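Table S2 (text version). Query chain:
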Amino acid sequence: MVQAKKIALVMIAVFVLYTIIHSPRRAAELVGVGFEGISSAAQGVGEFMTELVN
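Corresponding structure-token output:
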């Protein structure tokens, strides 16, 4: 089981590196989209907590 996790992690790392090297502009766009998603989620949690306190 541990070996499978290591192999999967290495494969993901290789894929990410390949994507960054092959098309850095697209990789930057994907990172931007990811951060926008995280930002939206954090904002939603903040609004929920504010309404919960009120």
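Notes on Table S2: The chain has a mean pLDDT of 91. DSSP finds two helices and no strands in the chain.
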